[in-house]
Model the fold of this input.
Amino acid sequence: MTIPDGVLLIAGYVLAHAAYSVSDLQSGELLIPLAVTQTGEKQEVVRFEAETQEEAIANAKLELEKLKASVDIYAFAREGSMKLEDGKEIDVITIDAWEKGLKHKVSVIQPFKPNNGNNEFKIMPGTMVVVDGETLEPEIENRFIEIVEEGITYHPIGASWSGWKQ
Done:
């Protein structure tokens, strides 16, 4: 399976941006879904606000489908939760990344501990890269995660990443 490095790099960059955005939120506050789009050398950050998180995410997905006609690459960040095998729910930041010509849906899922207004924010273990809704073989996933982590370092907040890790 071939996923261009650029898709994973922008996913890492946007993951760092989203993590920074949630790192100081108060209890009950959520990440405003956001996308970073790039056309040529021009990057733009687009935020998707709405009455509810679900509505913001749905609106963002519709808008991003339209943007595929005019952008070269994008990564879309949103906050949510994921159920573990033991039934426990954890908070996650999910990044969907795409570029022209890519036939696969690529998502990076990053568990985190919310700040809750108490300086509690942490990046938790268990980063996942999912392609077309399927988990990957460990060696492929680990290689993809290394590229995502490189993308994190490209963001101005990237130096803070290791300090946030639990």
